[in-house]
Design brief:
heterodimer; A: Helix Hairpins; elongated; B: mainly alpha
């Protein structure tokens, strides 16, 4: 197994772990964290695809840097929404999850 | 030997990601997430993507970590920190996610082998005006992506500020910080910023030819501002500060101006002709770095909140 293949499989595992966290977590902040895991897993997958055959391809690298910055701005907005929701409802989870519990 | 290193690193990354998702306690999950980001940046170095490693360490682990930790503090203030009881184990969800991982792994082996090396990029690079191919792609060949990204940052900040309560609008951004005089945080707040400013400016300056650039450097500068604010050494600005608003938009504006200059010189919008490419990219990088630094820091600090002394 070559290096890029190893990292691509790691990226695939990270996406799976992230989606599981997104589904199973009740605390909204944990969902935002899980969403970040999905994003970075996809970045690793894309980066590994660009690293095949020797030197790393600059094109996916530039896209990934763009992606990392956009992921942070989306996370910041999501965290703001979570805090606003918790302030309004007193709970850091969605109402339908409370009924289920 | 190197394969053993890669395998160990990948194993650690997956284990820490699992701990982030499965571990008890939100705070612990966030600490694991920060560790995960740092391990990931080592992985980027192993993949030969040093620019991405810098961005991941500064943004993915650093700023995102601060953002999440600050959110835990804010949730505690609302009295909503109690974690909901974990639900039943989601066996179907776990199976579906394993299937997703399997599908991605299958897709990897089904991917066609790319043509090597990327001949178009290598041929175009001498005309880009910079030597770092990642900077050439970001600010010249795919300038549209980067311009829109800098506007996405602004849009996210506007969205975040819209969440502020009406009565808080004229307060300072974020929550006031209280630190023990002479404590660790205050000492760090005095020690780190000079070094951070130097590193940040260096990263912006060197980005044209070596790994670095507006995003990595701007993030380091944003982190310097955050450390100083967290240590209580500077007071965060208000939403209504005109100078700060100007700093937020100067990057996209200079970028747009360079794009229009390209069109005026006959090369087309956002296409930088060779004679001005080097200078234009340098100007864009400096303006963009200031905008990114200010916008990212404000995104992490959050909307204005009551609690500051007037």
């Amino acid at each position: 197994m070559t290096g890029p293949t190893l990292y691509a499989l790691t990226g695939a595992a990270l996406v799976g772990i992230g989606v599981f966290g997104l589904i199973s977590a009740r605390h909204l902040l944990r969902r935002v964290v899980a969403f970040n895991l999905i994003g970075s897993g996809l970045f690793v997958f894309l980066g590994a695809a660009g690293a095949r055959g020797g030197a790393a391809d600059p094109l996916p690298q530039a896209l990934i840097i763009t992606g990392i910055v956009v992921a942070l701005s989306a996370s910041a907005l999501a965290v703001g929404l979570v805090v606003a929701h918790a302030r309004a409802s007193g709970r850091p989870a969605l109402p339908e999850e409370d009924e289920e519990a | 030997m190197t394969l053993a290193l890669d395998a160990t690193l990948c194993g650690l990354i997956v284990a820490v990601a699992l701990a982030t998702v499965l571990g008890r306690g939100v705070f612990r999950a966030i600490v694991f997430f920060i560790v995960y980001g740092l391990l990931l940046s080592v992985a980027w170095v192993r993949l030969g993507a040093v620019d991405v490693a810098l961005a991941e360490a500064a943004i993915g682990a650093g700023l995102t970590g601060v953002l999440f930790l600050a959110a835990v503090g804010k949730l505690a203030r609302t009295g909503a920190e109690a974690e909901p009881a974990p639900g039943r184990p989601h066996l179907p969800a776990a199976l579906a996610c394993a299937g997703l991982t399997g599908a991605l792994a299958w897709a990897w082996f089904a991917l066609p082998e790319p043509e090597r090396p990327g001949s178009d990029l290598a041929a175009a690079l001498p005309r880009a005006g910079v030597e770092n191919p990642v900077t050439a792609v970001l600010l010249n060949f795919r300038a549209w992506d980067t311009l829109l990204e800098s506007i996405v940052l602004l849009a996210a900040l506007v969205g975040l500020w819209l969440l502020a309560r009406d009565e808080d609008w004229h307060d300072r951004l974020g929550l006031p910080q209280h630190v023990r005089p002479g404590g660790v945080m205050e000492s760090f707040g005095r020690l780190l910023p000079p070094v951070g400013v130097l590193v940040g400016i260096y990263l912006v300056y060197i980005g044209a030819d070596r790994p670095g650039g507006a995003f990595q450097g701007g993030t380091v500068l944003a982190a310097v501002g955050l450390v100083a604010a967290l240590a209580g050494l500077i007071r965060t600005p208000r939403v209504t500060g005109h100078l700060w608003r100007a700093a937020m938009v100067v990057g996209p504006l200079v970028f747009l101006a360079a794009g229009v200059a390209g069109a005026a010189l006959g090369a087309g919008f956002l296409t930088l002709p060779e004679p001005i490419a080097g200078g234009a990219i340098f100007a864009i990088e400096i303006a963009l770095a200031s905008s990114i630094a200010v916008t990212l820091a404000f995104l992490v600090i959050g909307p204005p909140e009551r609690g500051h002394r007037r």
